[in-house]
């Protein structure tokens, strides 16, 4: 045995001779081989006598010679399971092949195959019936049902057969065997595939086996076999015996060898083996840290555990459990379970029979407690245990009762529809709203979780998050979340970066993500209600003119303050602003303007790529078309970018506005692909782009061939198109609107001549819309919309045709200035439209009859509006024609008014319409257009759907469109036929109209984008009312009687009219504001009444004399004369023509802007440059427009901001013209202050004071000294001294137009000190801000920084315009100011002879302070004591007497105040406590002196 162990084995690289030598050495030892080869004899006869000869079958069609052997690469083989047994015949054949392998290796000839075909004899096999089962079909195979390794059935059996056999075995042993440990423990234990765990598993399974053979095999494997010899390849009967004999022989050999021989044999083996193989074997045998730790634990527990095998399992929580067991099958009480956790060892001695049960029970309860299932090891992807994921298999925790009862704010969660999920309601889990978040018991998704999902790598999660965010935005825009969520949800989303998340999602490669992002972007920047209301206003007066939906411009703030001096030039400011804008990032731009931020991210190019290349579905196409429409409404620059984007508009016209489309598209079929079909939103986009300007309209019409498409969509009946009827009607409607916009510029008028019959045919359908059938429906359907838009188109064409003759004359004569070049006339003349007037008037007559007879026919108001507007354009155009007879026009006007107009004006229906003005007015109902909580400064919306009261102004029940068109027509009739003025002025003097105008001018509505688009139309109505009154005031007694109201309305309109109404401002100033007919007080004793009213006021209020002037004035005036303002009112009323010129010069806009506005309002298509109104920046004129001539006299250096005087050099003195302008302005202000006080009520009192004080700051030093100026300022001072005005006067708040009032007051003090000459009027203005309730900083300025002005404040107490108590009450508490008071007296800067008013005020405050017996701060007490000592020590006893003996201010006293004859005893006692001695003698000396 020893010599056998020392034999060398063949090594790698040895030759055949070496192998033969090794074989001879083995045979020489005489040792029997471990494996024997048994060959069976060949039973087939051989004719040649060769036992290995093959039988050859000859076939006729098969060649006799076998093919050449295949010399391909050797195939990989697999080792069959050890229990695999073939049939007897196959085994014999395999033995033959194994004996002669070279002969049969590549024998693939058909003869070799056919020779193996043998039929098996089945005559002796028993026949068994299939077992009876309860199931209809065998159970579907699952991976969890796969048999464990090592339990495969003998022989090659299918999976189905193996399952059936396993099911039978389970049914036989059910109730006796325990469930296998592998399905319970191995799935929760990491590293369960180790060799030791498999041995333990086999041991446990064999413990419950019923066969002795399996038990014996387990003993051999568990105790003796080390895994080197497995017995694979031996027969089933001899395998166990051979393994046992080999094992015993090995043990005997080892026992016979000594330690020295064993080490020598080991060294020899290591020298013969490959070093890499040795290292590999040692690495496999090296103990892991876990095993080493277990060995240390065994050492701690004792030596009795050394011979035991240990299997270590790792729990999910990190706790190591070591199971120690013996290698025998007998039950031993010494078996231990050791649990090591946090350095602590626990040993429990229990029986090995219960180890598995206890061990599995503990782990299952610990890891799988509450789980609906227990994972198994053979499940897919369950080889590694992830406890965090298994936690979500537990039952969902319940909402705490405290959460249900609390009223605390909680994080908002949203469902899949974007609605807020109530936090106190438990929703079922099948809704899918519960997820793996911080609060799994709460249903819904928070914004933070949605922002996480939107960045997920899973496409479905990104799509879901974008869809939910889009629905949340939609509901927030609609105002449905206002009461459920605190703060602005949209502002929160934008601040969190939602805009760029959506933009990045549009760059995704997934179509679903792009679709969700497109819809979210559409919901964010597009408001469907805004577009709906703008379309409804299209048929109103100037309904196609809208404001740009861009944020209001903010003042540019330069970052470097040192560069402010260099920015004096306006061009430099613009360049610096552009440079500053160029430095902004996309985030900065989006923070100030969302649309500009999107344009800067090249969104237009991406939209073009998506629509042209990716070709998404209809929903995405419609979303992008709405987004582009919203961008076009943003501004002229944004619309230009859309129009100039390479290939974008061309692609839209080609794909979504084709002239022809597939004939297979049938009516009633749903749109599955939007490409290749005409879409109304695409036509609307072209219309909005055309509203930007006439050049954009020309590009769209001719370069993009929209002219052909407009004709195509209008030439065919909308119901006959191969589209849905509603789609065809919408397409025709938008085509008409696009044509109407183009006709407003005088374009596309030649198409009118080409399809004139079709237009007349459509026009002839209007009377049918007024029939009984439509009246019974009572609904505004698409037919009415098409008819209204057709009339808008005809109105624009008629206006263009009315200017053809004049333009043709200018072109022929060449009589045109260089600034305005010659304009070619339109390709249409008045002859082409003259026949439409009579038919439209007949339709209007029928429509007005229906309105009078049927009160509930308000759905016809938009149609009546368009009919009235066309009639007005027709009469204006006809009067403009040189060939028209004037008498013929007057007769036609009389006929039309008597037949159609007057019955409507005198009907009760008109009174009902006027009654609705107040309920639908924006000015009368400010809450209807106040920006909502979700309004954003960087994303403009019209606020039509933010949960506020419905915007009734723009609905079909709103009377504003109808009344505006009616007043416009009446104004035209009044300007052409003076004889009808008295009858057409009836609507102006109606009680409903009067009450509406009074309420409208009394409300001050802040201008924003949510109100501007409505104010634009309402102010047009009020303007037409006033202008109609101006045309009829001299002809109608009723209008003359209400002229003050119309004048007040005109004054209010000047400060409210918005951009685009410059021509109305000019008309109001020219014909109404300074019209003597609207100031009847000048003829009816108004000046005398003003003087009388002032005298009556003095009888109830404090009387004061007129402040004296430093200049020579007329003597002989009585007390109070001049403060009433009678003389100034007479002078102002007589100077109204000069005032008109003055304010036209100061308030008129630029000539270019005025020309554009006049062209728009008067309907001059050849001069209209754009239908888009100027950018929203507030009213055209400020509310203090009446002070503008005075503001022009001051520069920015005086603290008053005046944009009109910026950059103008301020002269040293004023010219005669400027002095006259200042005087006229002052007189106009006196007139407004007395006769129209409501016109100045919207200006703050502080602003009025500052504006009027500009007279003292004007260049030069003698403007306020002029007698007329001094008189006007005196009257104004009297008005400002009234208690009502004084109570409104506030200086500690921001004053409009003044950067800082203390700075302004400081400059006023400097001017007073330098050029007042002791003027009483100037002194009174300086003293007004020194009242006690105003900030102490103003008094500090006078007594600390400008104490020299104390010398010139010589205003007597009797001329003080406000009560003295406003200066002395309450007592001064500012300690530094009190010290300044005393210092000014002690230093002699403040004397009674110089400043009697301030002297009295200072005495009152000092006396109150020194005799105040309770001070809140020790410093005040020390200051009080020090002051008393200084006063007692004064050498000037008069001042000392005034300070100590002061009693009360008295304006009638010669001193201005009263003194105590004897100081009260309480005060004497107080002085004694402060001085420490009796002050009686001191006081007697002071009084006697």
What does this structure look like?
The protein is mostly helical and 1489 residues long. The chain is built from 68 helices and six strands. Helix content is 52%, strand content 2%. The strands form two sheets. Strands 1-2-3-4 form a four-stranded antiparallel beta sheet. A two-stranded antiparallel ribbon has the order 5-6. It is flat, with a radius of gyration of 53 Å. About 16% of the residues have low confidence.
SSE topology:
Elements: H1 2-5, H2 16-29, H3 88-99, H4 101-104, H5 110-114, H6 159-173, H7 195-207, H8 212-224, H9 236-256, H10 259-272, H11 275-285, H12 289-301, E1 309-314, E2 320-325, E3 336-341, E4 344-349, H13 355-367, H14 387-390, H15 401-405, H16 447-453, H17 459-477, H18 489-495, H19 498-506, H20 511-525, H21 528-536, H22 570-582, H23 586-592, H24 594-600, H25 603-614, H26 618-634, H27 636-644, H28 648-656, H29 680-690, H30 694-703, H31 706-715, H32 725-744, H33 750-754, H34 756-763, H35 766-769, H36 772-777, H37 782-802, H38 804-813, H39 836-853, H40 861-880, H41 886-905, H42 908-920, H43 960-976, H44 981-984, H45 991-1002, H46 1009-1032, H47 1037-1041, H48 1043-1054, H49 1062-1073, H50 1086-1100, H51 1126-1134, H52 1136-1147, H53 1151-1162, H54 1188-1191, H55 1216-1235, H56 1245-1257, H57 1267-1280, H58 1283-1288, H59 1301-1315, H60 1320-1327, H61 1336-1345, H62 1365-1368, H63 1375-1387, H64 1396-1410, H65 1418-1432, H66 1437-1445, E5 1446-1449, E6 1457-1459, H67 1465-1475, H68 1480-1488
Antiparallel strand pairs: 1-2, 2-3, 3-4, 5-6
Helix pairs in contact: 7-8, 16-17, 17-20, 19-20, 20-26, 23-24, 25-28, 26-27, 26-29, 29-30, 29-32, 31-32, 32-37, 37-40, 39-40, 39-41, 40-43, 42-45, 43-46, 45-48, 46-48, 46-49, 48-49, 49-53, 50-51, 51-55, 55-57, 56-59, 59-61, 61-63, 63-64, 64-66
């Amino acid at each position: 045995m020893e010599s056998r162990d020392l034999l060398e084995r063949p090594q790698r690289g040895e030759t055949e001779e070496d192998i033969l030598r090794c074989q001879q050495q083995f045979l020489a030892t005489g040792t029997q081989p471990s494996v024997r080869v048994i060959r069976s004899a060949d039973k087939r006869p051989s004719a040649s006598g060769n036992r290995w000869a093959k039988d050859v079958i000859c076939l006729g069609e098969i060649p006799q010679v076998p093919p050449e052997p295949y010399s391909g690469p050797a195939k990989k083989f697999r080792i069959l399971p050890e229990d695999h047994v073939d049939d007897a015949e196959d085994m014999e054949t395999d033995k033959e092949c194994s004996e002669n392998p070279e002969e049969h290796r590549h024998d693939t000839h058909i003869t070799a195959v056919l020779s193996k075909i043998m039929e098996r004899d089945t005559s002796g096999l028993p026949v068994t019936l299939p077992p009876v089962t309860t199931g209809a079909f065998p159970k579907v195979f699952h991976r969890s049902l796969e048999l464990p390794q090592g339990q495969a059935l003998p022989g090659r059996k299918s999976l189905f057969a193996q399952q059936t056999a396993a099911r039978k075995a389970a049914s036989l042993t059910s109730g006796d065997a325990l469930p296998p440990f592998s399905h319970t423990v191995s799935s929760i234990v990491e590293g369960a595939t180790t060799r030791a765990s498999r041995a333990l598993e086999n041991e446990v399974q064999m413990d419950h086996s019923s066969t002795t053979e399996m038990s014996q095999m387990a003993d051999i494997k568990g105790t003796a076999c080390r895994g080197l010899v497995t017995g694979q390849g031996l027969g089933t009967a001899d395998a166990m015996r051979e393994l046992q004999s080999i094992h015993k022989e090995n043990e005997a050999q080892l026992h016979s060898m000594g330690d020295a021989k064993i080490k020598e044999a080991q060294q020899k083996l290591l020298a013969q083996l490959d070093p890499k193989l040795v290292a590999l074997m040692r690495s496999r045998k090296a103990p892991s840290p876990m095993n080493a730790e277990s060995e240390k634990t065994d050492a701690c527990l004792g030596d009795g555990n050394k011979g035991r095998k240990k299997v270590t399992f790792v729990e999910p929580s990190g706790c190591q459990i070591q199971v120690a067991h013996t290698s025998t099958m007998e039950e031993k009480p010494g078996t231990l379970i050791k649990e090591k956790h946090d350095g602590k060892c626990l040993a429990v001695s229990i029986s090995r029979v219960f180890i598995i049960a206890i061990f599995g029970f503990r782990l299952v309860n610990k890891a799988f407690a509450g789980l609906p299932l227990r994972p198994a090891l053979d499940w897919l992807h369950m080889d590694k245990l992830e406890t965090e994921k298994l936690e979500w298999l537990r039952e969902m925790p319940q909402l705490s009762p405290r959460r249900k009862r609390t009223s605390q704010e909680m994080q908002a969660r949203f469902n899949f529809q974007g609605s807020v999920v109530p936090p106190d309601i438990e929703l079922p889990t099948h809704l899918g709203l519960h997820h793996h978040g911080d609060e799994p018991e709460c249903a819904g998704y928070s914004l933070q979780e949605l922002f996480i999902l939107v960045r997920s790598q899973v496409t479905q999660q990104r799509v879901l998050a974008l869809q939910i965010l889009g629905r949340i935005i939609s509901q927030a825009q609609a105002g449905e979340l206002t009461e459920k969520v605190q703060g602005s949800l949209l502002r929160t989303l934008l601040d969190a970066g939602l805009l760029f998340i959506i933009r990045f999602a549009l760059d995704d490669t997934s179509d679903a993500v792009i679709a969700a992002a497109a819809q979210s972007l559409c919901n964010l920047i597009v408001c469907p209600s805004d577009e709906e209301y703008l379309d409804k206003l299209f048929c109103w007066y100037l309904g196609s003119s809208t404001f740009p939906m861009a944020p209001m411009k903010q003042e540019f703030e330069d970052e470097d303050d040192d560069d402010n001096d260099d920015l004096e030039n306006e061009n430099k400011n613009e360049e610096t602003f552009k440079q500053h804008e160029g430095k902004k990032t996309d985030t900065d731009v989006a923070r100030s303007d969302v649309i500009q931020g999107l344009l800067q991210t090249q969104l237009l190019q991406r939209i073009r790529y998506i629509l042209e290349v990716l070709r998404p579905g209809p929903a995405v196409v419609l979303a992008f078309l709405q987004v582009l429409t919203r961008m076009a409404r943003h501004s002229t620059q944004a619309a230009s970018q859309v129009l100039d984007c390479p290939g974008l508009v061309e692609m839209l016209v080609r794909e979504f506005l084709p002239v022809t489309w597939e004939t297979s598209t049938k009516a009633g079929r749903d749109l599955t692909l939007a490409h290749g079909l005409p879409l109304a939103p695409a036509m609307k986009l072209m219309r909005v782009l055309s509203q930007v300007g006439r050049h954009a309209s020309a590009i769209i019409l001719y370069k993009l061939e929209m002219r052909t498409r407009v004709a195509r969509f209008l030439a065919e009946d909308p119901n006959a198109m191969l589209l849905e009827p509603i789609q065809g009607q919408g397409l025709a409607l938008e085509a008409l609107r696009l044509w109407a916009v183009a006709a407003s510029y005088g374009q596309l008028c030649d198409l009118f001549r080409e399809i004139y019959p079709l237009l007349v045919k459509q026009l002839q359908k209007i009377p049918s819309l007024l029939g009984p059938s439509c009246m019974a429906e009572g609904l505004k359907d698409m037919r009415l919309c098409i008819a209204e838009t057709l009339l808008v188109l005809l109105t624009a064409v008629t206006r263009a045709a009315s200017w053809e003759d004049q333009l043709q004359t200018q072109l022929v004569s060449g009589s045109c200035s260089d600034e305005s070049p010659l304009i070619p006339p339109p390709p249409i003349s008045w002859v082409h439209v003259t026949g439409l007037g009579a038919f439209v008037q007949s339709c209007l007559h029928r429509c007005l009859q229906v309105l009078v007879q049927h009160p509930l026919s308000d759905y016809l108001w938009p149609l009546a509006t368009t009919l009235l507007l066309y009639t007005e354009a027709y009469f204006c155009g006809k009067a403009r024609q040189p060939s028209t007879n004037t008498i013929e026009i007057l007769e036609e006007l009389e006929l039309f008014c008597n037949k159609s107009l007057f019955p409507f004006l005198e009907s009760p229906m008109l009174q009902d319409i006027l009654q609705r003005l107040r309920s639908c007015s924006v000015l009368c109902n400010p809450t209807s257009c106040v920006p909502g909580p979700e309004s954003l400064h960087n994303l403009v919306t019209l606020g039509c759907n933010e949960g506020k009261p419905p915007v009734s102004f723009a609905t079909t029940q709103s009377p504003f469109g109808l009344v505006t068109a009616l007043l416009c027509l009446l104004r035209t009739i009044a300007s052409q036929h003076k004889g009808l003025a008295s009858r057409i002025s009836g609507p102006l003097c109606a009680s409903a109209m009067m009450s509406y105008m009074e309420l409208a001018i009394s409300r001050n509505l802040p201008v924003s984008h949510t109100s501007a688009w409505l104010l634009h139309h309402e102010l047009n109505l009020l303007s037409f009312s006033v202008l109609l009154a101006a045309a009829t005031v001299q002809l109608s007694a009723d209008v003359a009687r209400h002229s003050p109201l119309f004048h007040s309305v005109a004054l209010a309109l000047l400060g409210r009219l918005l951009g685009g109404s410059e021509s109305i401002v000019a008309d109001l100033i020219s014909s109404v504001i300074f019209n003597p007919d609207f100031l009847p007080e000048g003829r009816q004793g108004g000046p005398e009444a003003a003087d009388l009213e002032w005298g009556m006021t003095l009888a109830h209020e404090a009387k004061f004399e007129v402040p004296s002037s430093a200049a020579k004035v007329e003597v002989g005036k009585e007390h109070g004369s001049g403060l009433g303002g009678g003389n100034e009112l007479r002078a102002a009323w007589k100077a109204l023509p000069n005032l008109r010129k003055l304010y036209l010069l100061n308030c008129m806009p630029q000539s270019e802007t005025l020309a554009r506005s006049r062209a728009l309002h008067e309907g001059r298509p050849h001069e209209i440059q754009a239908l888009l109104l100027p950018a929203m920046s507030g009213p055209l004129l400020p509310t203090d427009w009446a002070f503008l001539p005075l503001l022009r006299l001051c520069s920015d250096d005086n603290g008053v901001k005046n944009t009109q005087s910026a950059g103008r050099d301020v002269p040293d003195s004023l010219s005669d013209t400027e002095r006259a302008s200042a005087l006229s302005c002052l007189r106009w202000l006196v007139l407004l202050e007395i006769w129209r006080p409501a016109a100045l009520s919207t200006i703050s009192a502080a602003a009025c004071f500052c504006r009027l004080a500009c007279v003292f700051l004007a260049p030069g030093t003698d403007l306020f000294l002029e007698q007329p100026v001094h008189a006007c300022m005196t009257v104004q001072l009297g008005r400002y001294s009234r208690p009502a005005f004084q109570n409104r006067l506030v200086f500690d708040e921001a004053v409009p137009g003044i950067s800082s009032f203390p700075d302004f007051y400081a400059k006023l003090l400097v001017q007073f000190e330098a050029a007042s000459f002791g003027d009483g009027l100037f002194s009174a203005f300086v003293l007004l801000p020194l009242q006690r309730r105003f900030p102490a900083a103003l008094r500090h300025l006078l007594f600390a920084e400008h104490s020299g002005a104390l010398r010139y404040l010589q205003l007597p107490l009797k001329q003080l315009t406000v009560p003295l108590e406003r200066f002395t009450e309450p007592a001064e508490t500012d300690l530094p100011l009190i010290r300044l008071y005393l210092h000014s007296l002690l230093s002699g800067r403040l004397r009674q002879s110089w400043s009697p008013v301030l002297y009295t005020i200072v005495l009152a405050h000092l006396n109150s302070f020194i005799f105040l017996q309770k001070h809140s701060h020790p410093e005040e007490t020390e200051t009080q004591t020090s002051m008393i000592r200084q006063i007692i020590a004064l050498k000037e006893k008069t001042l000392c007497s005034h300070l100590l003996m002061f009693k009360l201010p008295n304006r009638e006293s010669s001193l201005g105040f009263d003194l105590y004859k004897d100081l009260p005893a309480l005060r004497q006692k107080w002085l004694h406590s402060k001085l420490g001695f009796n002050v009686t003698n001191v006081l007697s000396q002071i009084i006697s002196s």
